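>> received
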Amino acid sequence: MEQKLKDIQNRAAQIESQMNSGMISGAELSKLSKEYSQLSEILPIAAEYFQIQAGISDANAMIKEPELKSLAEEQLIEFKKLLPEVEHKLQIALLPKDDADDRSVIMEIRAGVGGEESALFAFDLFQQYNSYALRSGWKIEIIEENATSLRGYKEIIFKIDGLGAYARLKFESGIHRVQRVPETEASGRIHTSAVSVAVMPEAEEIDVTIEEKDLRIDTFRAQGAGGQHVNKTDSAVRITHLPSGIVVSSQSERSQIQNRVFCMAMLRSKLYKKQRVEQESSSNASRKSMVGSGDRSEKIRTYNFPEQRVTDHRIKLTLYKLEDILAGGEGLDEMIDALTAADQLERLASLGEK
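>> returned
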């Protein structure tokens, strides 16, 4: 480990020198900046590790001196108590990074079982992620929405643009259940409804190859809630990727060109996600992830309004902070942090088995 840490320190110093030289720019500078940013997360922990090791070495030298033995023994106890914690932090920091973690995301929220109540909860989840994005300093852009007359969403697709958005939101994919008395329920009976969420890292053109011959592109007139026409031109676009059967559409913009741009962005992300899932399935065939596969059909979380609790079934975590979580507050951060930690521990265990 020590040699690996020294290599990281040397590489960081080398990158810093290159970046300060003024001899590089453009894509190469961007690439080096990203690498330096990743190394920078490890550098302070590495410095702490070497400081503890130096302290242990000094204390072992001091212990041979009778007048310093007592002080040296106290220092040894303290350093040896700190060492396992720092080593664990290093193990986490040195885990292979997900290449998609720094990317923006495209999210899809769709109403499922529960009719109008499900659509209302789809709206609540969109508001949750919208608030969380704003609190995180990210930008949000709606790509497609299909609203109901009661302020719900049958479906909404949107982009969250911000560094590290995928790292924070990737464990949100799956079925979110809600247990509450619907606004339309006169008898006060609790209903259970479900909404599916899909989270995809935004893909770039170099990530996937899309042949024009593999696309069927249809245009149609954009419609609003209840079937009303929102414009009088065929500005809405639907693109079908024939080899995979993936269909994407957009009608949120008045321009057919802009709707096509949104569709292609969604299609790239869906194909990139599919490609990643296939790669992960082949490399992790022997185990099933504790925090799930990212499949939108997997039940992951329940929001119980009468008890004001949210339970994540993957890691068996229950927080009695329903309002804060739905507001995109610190409770949602606590949930995401716990899922991230569970994933890290599982990957550490997997490395130990190899």
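>> The two ends are 17 Å apart (CA to CA).
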